């Protein structure tokens, strides 16, 4: 099976997803999710990684983060995922793979696409039918945004405020709650481009990424509907843009 392709550029935002081996529900217990989050908290300090959002589900993880140095991100993920897999195997007295292949990285444009991705991550378990609102899921970034989790925080709240051009967390949380409630009312299902594409952003952003990837195999340009512009390469990986209101 071919390895998942990644295209990492410094100074950009990425949505990382990683699934348990064969879709297994290794993360289904509260204690195991707590153990993963603890190691995530330790790893972001060890490697100076800026996390904007995250969600730990029963069989996969989401992380939204800023990549300043791609090599550091790779080291961070090797450390975190390897450390946790070993911990899990010790706790469960098992051996074998914990993760399914490598993690996938989708480049996210800042602005409206970033906030749409934020909401998509926080609503993960709502879409799965496990909860009705992110306030009821303790293993996602929403808990930190609204002040429900104060110790061992994972999110870089200062970076979130900078990206939103706001100066206090309370104002940010109020705005984000309104946006989240609107997303809940729309009741959108799974949108694969957040987890399967190479990049999500405006058409100009996607074109810039395309120009940065001239070393890749032959690119095939395709035009979708008015709200769906994407580029596919010969191996099936694609850039995708979904213009949405902020």
Features:
globular; 246 residues; 2 domains; 40% helix; Alpha-Beta Plaits; 9 helices
How many domains would you count in the coordinates? 2
Strand order of the largest sheet: 2-3-1-4-5-8-7-6
Shape summary:
globular
Write down the CATH topology of the largest domain.
Answer: Alpha-Beta Plaits
**Rg over CA atoms:** 18 Å
**CATH domain class of the largest domain:** Alpha Beta
Annotation field: number of helices? 9
Largest sheet: 8 strands, mixed
Structural class: alpha+beta
Percent of residues in helical segments? 40-55%
Q: What can you tell me about this protein's structure?
A:
By secondary structure, this protein is α+β, with helices and mostly antiparallel strands. It folds into 2 domains: about 10-190, Transposase IS200-like (Alpha-Beta Plaits, 2-Layer Sandwich), CATH 3.30.70; about 195-245. Helix content is about 40%, strand content about 20%. The protein has 9 helices and 8 strands. The chain has helices at about 30-45, 70-90, 110-120, 125, 140-145, 155-165, 170-185, 195, 205-210; strands at about 10-20, 50-55, 60-65, 105-110, 200, 220-225, 230-235, 240. Strands 2-3-1-4-5-8-7-6 form an 8-stranded mixed sheet, sandwiched between helices. A hairpin with a 4-residue loop joins strand 7 (about 230-235) and strand 8. Helix 1 (about 30-45) packs antiparallel against helix 2. The longest helix is centred in the N-terminal third of the chain and has 23 residues, at about 70-90. The chain is globular. The N and C termini lie far apart (about 40 Å). About 35% of the residues are buried. The mean pLDDT is about 85.
């Amino acid at each position: 099976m071919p390895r998942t392709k990644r295209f990492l550029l410094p100074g950009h935002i990425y949505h990382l997803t990683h699934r348990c081996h064969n879709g297994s529900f290794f993360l289904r217990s509260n204690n195991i999710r707590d153990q993963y989050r603890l190691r995530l908290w330790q790893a972001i300090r060890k490697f100076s990684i800026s996390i904007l959002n995250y969600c730990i589900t029963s069989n996969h993880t989401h992380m939204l983060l800023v990549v300043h140095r791609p090599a550091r991100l790779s080291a961070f993920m090797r450390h975190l995922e390897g450390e946790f897999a070993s911990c899990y195997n010790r706790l469960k007295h098992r051996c074998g793979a914990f993760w399914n292949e490598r993690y996938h990285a989708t480049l996210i444009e800042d602005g409206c696409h970033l906030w749409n991705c934020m909401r998509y991550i926080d609503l993960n378990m709502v879409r799965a039918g496990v909860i009705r609102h992110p306030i009821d899921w303790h293993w996602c970034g929403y808990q930190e945004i609204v002040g429900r989790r104060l110790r061992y925080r994972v999110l870089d709240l200062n970076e979130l405020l900078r990206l939103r051009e706001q100066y206090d967390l309370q104002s940010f949380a109020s705005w984000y709650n309104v946006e989240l409630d609107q997303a809940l009312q729309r009741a959108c299902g799974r949108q694969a481009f957040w987890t399967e594409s190479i990049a999500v952003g405006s058409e100009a952003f996607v074109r810039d990424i395309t120009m940065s990837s001239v070393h890749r195999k032959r690119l095939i340009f395709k035009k979708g509907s008015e709200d769906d512009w994407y580029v596919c390469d010969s191996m099936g990986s694609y850039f995708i843009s979904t213009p949405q209101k902020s």
